[in-house]
Amino acid sequence: MNLRYNVEADWLLLKTCNFRCSYCFFPPITLGAKLAVHGSNSQWAEGFDATSKTWLLHITGGEPSIYPGFVELCELLTRNHYLSVNSNLSDRSIDDFAERIDPERVHFINAPVHLDGRQKRSSVDVFIKCVHKLQRYRFNVLVSMIMTPEAIVTFPEDMKYFASHGLHIIPKVMRGEYQGNRYPSAYSDSQKNFITKCLGEAQRKYAPVLTSMREPPTINMFTDDDLLNNPPDYQGKVCGSGYNFVRIDPDGTVIRCGSEERLGNILLRNMRLLQSPKRCNTYYCPYFCKKYTSLSAETPSEGHPDTRAKPEDMFLAAKLIMKGYKIVYQSHAVIYHSHTIL
Ligand code: SF4
Ligand code: SF4
After folding, report:
1. Which residues contact 34 (CB under 8 A, 6 or more apart)?
2. 256 C-alpha to center of ligand 2: Å?
3. Which residue has a Cα nearest atom 7 of ligand 1?
4. Ligand nearest to the CA of 255
5. Residue 310 CB: number of other CB atoms within 10 A?
6. pLDDT at residue 311 in the model
7. pLDDT value of residue 277
8. Strand partners, 84
9. pLDDT for res 118
10. Burial environment of residue 190 by CB neighbours within 10 A (0 to 12, 13 to 18, 19 or more)
11. Average pLDDT per run of 10 along the chain, which is 342 residues long?
């Protein structure tokens, strides 16, 4: 896979979802709202083409696979752009997606196992079958699970079950309010240690997938242990948000991540990106913060090492992981940079 893009977007295609996970960022009323379609599939694709940029579109929701004409939308977008997709894989459109979409245009599919929405084992088996099909069609699938306190308890059993089907689960650190507690700070030390240990295991299991992806996934759950202790503060750092990264809302509005700074609208074809990266004065998803503050780090001055991530570091790290080494990440790097081998 050879990703070549100018701008990445965290594209909230819809807020509606067919699941009701207890830890979801959205309240049930939003998840159950009537699905809103703001543009036809060709209007979306033509809108992105009209920007004269090549996009890496991270399509998320809600649940993207229930969006009307989801596969056709992906087909049109992947003619000129790249995708990554967040999906619970519950809709039958994913079957069609596997057959019709070019895997070379899809960086990865993040497929969380939401046990809240899949209480019956048969439903978990349908999910597993779907992952197998996507893998057969050469998609990079990252199977993850949100580490609620309940999930931590059942995780060893769940991991065993998935492993018996050739799959591995990446533990994803929970962020935000859950049952009256604020995560990740509400994790106990033993829960943190457990998650860190399982993350190390997931890094090893996914090393071949990461190698085939060539560039680390933006939603890089493999570095979630960074979030467990002293999560990094990005305020004041130079960041590409608004310049080579944006958030897109369901109606096509382009926004500088968590700020109110609007940069136009894809459907109205009036987007204007910033002329250069600028300092962070807002909050957003730590995965994007990490990537776009690292990529936009000031040019190193003479005598100081360049701490920006380089693709070759990732390849080296992936090879070492396959050989059983543990990689320690530095908080300022995208991934695998300035690593220490233990
Ligand atoms: S599947 Fe995702 S969007 Fe849907 S309820 Fe669960 S966490 Fe929320
Ligand atoms: S660091 Fe995060 S919150 Fe700050 S500007 Fe960048 S993406 Fe936005």
Report:
1. 16
2. 8
3. 24
4. 2
5. 13
6. 35
7. 96
8. 58
9. 66
10. exposed
11. 93 96 93 96 98 98 97 98 97 97 98 78 88 98 97 96 97 94 95 97 96 94 91 92 98 96 98 97 94 72 38 42 41 31 25
Give residue 114's identity as a one-letter amino acid code.
H
DSSP line for 182-211 = EETTTS-HHHHHHHHHHHHHHHHHTHHHHH
Tokens (6 digits) for 105: 């245009």
**Which residue of 256, 282, 290 sits with most ligand 2 atoms within 8 Å of its CB, as the best mutation to test the pocket?**
282
Rg of the Cα atoms in the chain: 19
Pocket of ligand 2 (CB under 6 A): 234, 237, 239, 241, 257-258, 280, 282-284, 288-289, 292-293
pTM: 0.87
Distance, CA 224 to ligand 2 centroid (Å)? 17
* CB distance 64 to ligand 1 below 6 Å: no
Q: Atom 8 in ligand 2: which residue has the minimum CA distance? A: 257
What six digits make up the tokens of 218?
A: 């933006």
Domains of the chain in sequence order: 7-228 (3.20.20.70), 238-294 (no CATH), 311-341 (no CATH)
- pLDDT, position 123: 87
Note the pLDDT of residue 268. Answer: 98
Which residue carries 């996914």 as its tokens? 206
